[in-house]
UniProtKB/TrEMBL annotation:
<dbReference type="InterPro" id="IPR001611">
    <property type="entry name" value="Leu-rich_rpt"/>
</dbReference>
<dbReference type="InterPro" id="IPR032675">
    <property type="entry name" value="LRR_dom_sf"/>
</dbReference>
<dbReference type="InterPro" id="IPR052595">
    <property type="entry name" value="LRRC69/RLP"/>
</dbReference>
<protein>
    <recommendedName>
        <fullName>Leucine-rich repeat-containing N-terminal plant-type domain-containing protein</fullName>
    </recommendedName>
</protein>
<dbReference type="Pfam" id="PF00560">
    <property type="entry name" value="LRR_1"/>
</dbReference>
<keyword id="KW-0433">Leucine-rich repeat</keyword>
<dbReference type="Pfam" id="PF08263">
    <property type="entry name" value="LRRNT_2"/>
</dbReference>
<keyword id="KW-0677">Repeat</keyword>
<dbReference type="InterPro" id="IPR013210">
    <property type="entry name" value="LRR_N_plant-typ"/>
</dbReference>
<feature type="domain" description="Leucine-rich repeat-containing N-terminal plant-type">
    <location>
        <begin position="10"/>
        <end position="52"/>
    </location>
</feature>
Amino acid sequence: MSRIDGYSLKDAQALVAFRATVWYDPLNIFASWHVTGVVGEHACNFKGVECDRNLYRIKYVDISGCQLRGIVPAVLGNITLAWGFNLSNNEFMGPIPRGFGRMPNLKYLDLSNNLLTGKSICNTLI
């Protein structure tokens, strides 16, 4: 039986939902970020995404410095096995999503040099 399952599809769908909240992508970073909804799909080939190749689950996302503009949605909190996100040096705006606080494996989160508002959640991750 394949180790690719519904969880890897949920990870991919979370990133696709994130892509939908970005309205400016001048470097076309998100060109590879798409899924059709078939169980077995995964995000391991998405640009800027590192996966556990045994489970096909997202471990780390780095889209820093990509000149992106948009909103960071709470749905990223559904990527439960991820240990890190680097979304720094873009132009993300709006509140810092509470979804990051629900990620049990999150050890690294860089949201610096964006236009985000709200309290820092960093102290809750330690």
